[in-house]
């Protein structure tokens, strides 16, 4: 019963953690703008927190570089299962305009598995919210599969 | 007893990754060593494979918050080099957009700053006002953050008379809502308790460490790159805003007053907007070298450009304001409480993606 309660609250009130992986700030301020009164994702129960150990959804922005890919992997590994990763912006998807730059790995999915891709340079707040909602649908499926296995 | 506390790169108050190793004695910071490199992309090197027109798009993405002003600086530099005369209307439009960008950046900063000392509702209030500015960006340029209006020889889009009327109406609401927050931001007891006297930087030290922007003006030095009268600023009344406290409170006050100043500058520019073309055709490739400086929301930004007569530039060197403000930060952190560290770090308005490029 306790497990069911957790599963339900994960879907109804997912906690997100935001990690800047070398973006130009454009996507970061748009992610932050989702929290503010205009878009206000808290009305869907989505909370932004700083600690990856409490989080269900990881929002990553920016081209991953050779220094912060370790941090990205570290934050990802600290999150409890099941978890979702949303990559935001052209840089997070493929590297964007920076894909040919010397210190760019190019794309979040080269380092950790990504579930939802939000395009745009920068991704609009509406699109980011949509991405998170999409991630929740995937999370529900994962939970179902998890139940079947037992 | 000495403790070393890592601050960042992933930290709730920081929207961007910077790492500080704080050496503490009890609760007092005695040494702060910043470590950078989490946002480095090697952007200047892209000049080898992107031609000088494509580099505008790359320069805009140095930093999303002041993207318009980066592109402005780059375009002004190349126009100097190629001896292009930009139409007057384009200059005015550039000024209008750069001041709108400054407003949105300062409102963003004021919000994050309020959040850093724990006033979350104030953060929400500032960001609510900021959405109106973002709407102005979206209506006039088609994008909220990275506006992509600058081209070499002018601007890409025009603002119609109808849009100008609407912008002035929006600015009136912004000004009214913004002034309503003045009492809380500048006179509230709790805010003053967290900011007055915290992170003190003297006038001499600010000058000798080469601080830029609001950090410099907050310490009592009247220096603003807008005094160079680039773009349409030669036609507008402009006086840099200076505060003499040298602490976090003064830096906040400088930025707070600069928002009102930007609203004023937009109004002046709109009044005098001339009716000419918005861009001229540019022929040939850049040759020679040039330095151009503009005032970003965070301070002085310098572009050094070198062309060799082909369509690829030899060198693009960018010096950004936060880069200049990191040495003052390392100086003012020792002696502060651990609880004040987020406030002090935010008081220089760090933009890490500018610094590292």
Structure, briefly:
Chain A has 150 residues and is α/β, with parallel strands linked by helices. In chain A, 39% of the residues lie in helices and 14% in strands. Chain A starts with a helix and ends with a helix.
SSE topology sketch:
The complex is a heterodimer of chains A (150) and B (357).
Chain A: H1 2-12, E1 15-20, H2 26-33, E2 47-48, E3 57-61, H3 69-78, E4 84-88, H4 89-93, E5 116-118, H5 125-149
Parallel strand pairs in A: 1-2, 1-3, 3-4, 4-5
Chain B: E1 2-7, E2 19-25, E3 28-35, H1 54-60, H2 67-82, H3 88-116, H4 120-141, E4 150-151, E5 154-155, H5 161-180, H6 182-187, H7 189-195, H8 203-208, H9 214-218, H10 248-271, E6 287-296, E7 299-308, E8 313-319, H11 321-332, H12 341-347, H13 352-356
Antiparallel strand pairs in B: 1-2, 2-3, 4-5, 6-7, 7-8
| Largest interface, chains and sizes | A-B, 40 and 39 residues
**Helical run tally of chain A:** 5
Mean pLDDT of chain B: 84
Corresponding CATH superfamily of chain B? Cytochrome-c3 Hydrogenase, chain B
Instruction: Enumerate the spans of chain A where pLDDT stays under 50 for 5 or more consecutive residues.
Output: none
Question: How many domains is the backbone of chain B divided into?
Answer: 1
The oligomeric state is: heterodimer
CATH topology of the domain at 15-105 in chain A, anyone?
Rossmann fold
Outline of chain A, from the CA principal axes? Answer: globular
Query: Which architecture of chain B does the CATH hierarchy give at level 2?
Result: Orthogonal Bundle
Q: Report the order of strands and helices of chain B.
A: EEEHHHHEEHHHHHHEEEHHH
Rg of chain A (CA only): 15 Å
The sequence of SSEs of chain A as H and E is: HEHEEHEHEH
pLDDT under 50 segments of chain B (min length 5)? none
Mean pLDDT of chain A: 82
CATH architecture designation of the domain at 15-105 in chain A: 3-Layer(aba) Sandwich
Walk across the major sheet of chain A and give the strand order: 2-1-3-4-5
Derived from helix and strand composition plus strand pairing, the structural class of chain B reads alpha+beta
Q: Give the class-level CATH name of the domain at 15-105 in chain A.
A: Alpha Beta
Helix content of chain A: 25-40%
